């Protein structure tokens, strides 16, 4: 007897010593402190305001009602938004599944049929079939002693929240892309105007040159040069026409419509570049105003919860099961049947040897956490630099526009003077047309700079979050209460920046 006890104790000791464990495994990711991203020098001498964040309907500030209508249409029918909505709903369903896994399960079943009984089963065992009725109820509940299932639910909630915020991010991206395509359409029309004017100028110059050749004033070289200018002007006009069609097609895609929809868009008005000031405390406040940053932070939180789930799988688990049923042979009343049975069976399980599966699973969750942290850090660094680059670009464009306006004014003055000289009989009209070409080139360059300025201001608005407001999300209050129940220390708009790994 003592030998049996000693053997059992030895086996138990060896089993416990050989149990799977998580020793030596950990994640290495560290969240970047936004205060470490210095912006003082890059954003010096800029207008700073705590209320400088874009409004949700920022596009109204560009001053074109047609643009506002197009963005509203895109937000209703863009296919990418349908994809984002479906992903958000799927993530919400997964959170519901994770929550259901924490609760007890009760199942019931019953059946009625005929059974052939052997002759050795009296009193009905005569070798013939006999009717039977059967019903049972089962209960099972796996106790969440270490909080693994709760952590799984919290992870699913974090993922659902991330997808919900990415749905808003998709709307911001679509609105910005519509505005940028609209800017390109306006620039294409401006290019068409210049191309038509250049074609008219080149054609007039060729007519005059042909007359001068006929009069013996010019030779065939000048005529061939004028033919080349007309051909170049026709090419420029074809390029401008195609640019209009390309911008219209791009808008059709963003609106989720066929190509004919783009043809119905009238010529854009001259857009005003959005007046955007720099928010104070940019790196820190940007975290709560960029949807991609908020979503990335929720994914970090979800990854940290998944590490906890993986760690609890190394620990013993207790579950409770109960089973009860009734059975009757023949035509009796099932609920009066004497054949009743039940069982209650609590059980405990402990992983001892699994070939390294649990350690590999935990190592994978650690890697996923590090990846989520790295992705968050990447987005944060990129977001801060996006704002700085866009502001730098706008400053440069403003200087370029100022200089180019001087060039346009000078070319226009030269054109006016050339016309006066021609009318006074001092200069030739051909000379005036040559000066006109310089003015058209200057106007084309100015239109390009102005389009870049509006486009970059839209990009800056997008870099500042595009008017993202977590509190405006559908179901925000419900999501907030769920997150508070799952992780009381987390904020619904921006989870805490400290790691919640366990």
Tags for this model:
single chain; 502 residues; alpha+beta; Outer membrane efflux proteins (OEP); 5-stranded antiparallel sheet; 11 helices; 60% helix; 10% strand; disordered N terminus
Mean pLDDT rating: 80
H/E element string? HHHEEHHHHHEEEHHH
Number of domains: 2
State the helix count: 11
Going by CATH, the architecture of the largest domain would be: Up-down Bundle
| Structure class | alpha+beta
Q: Unreliable segments (pLDDT under 50, ≥5 consecutive)?
A: 1-18, 475-494, 496-502
Q: Which bin fits the share of residues in helices?
A: 55-70%
Q: What form results from the Cα inertia axes?
A: elongated
Profile the largest sheet: 5 strands, antiparallel
Distance between the termini: 45 Å
CATH topology of the largest domain: Outer membrane efflux proteins (OEP)
CATH 4th-level superfamily of the largest domain: Outer membrane efflux proteins (OEP)
Specify the CATH class of the largest domain.
Mainly Alpha
Strand fraction band? Answer: 5-15%
TL;DR of this structure?
By secondary structure, this protein is of the alpha+beta class.
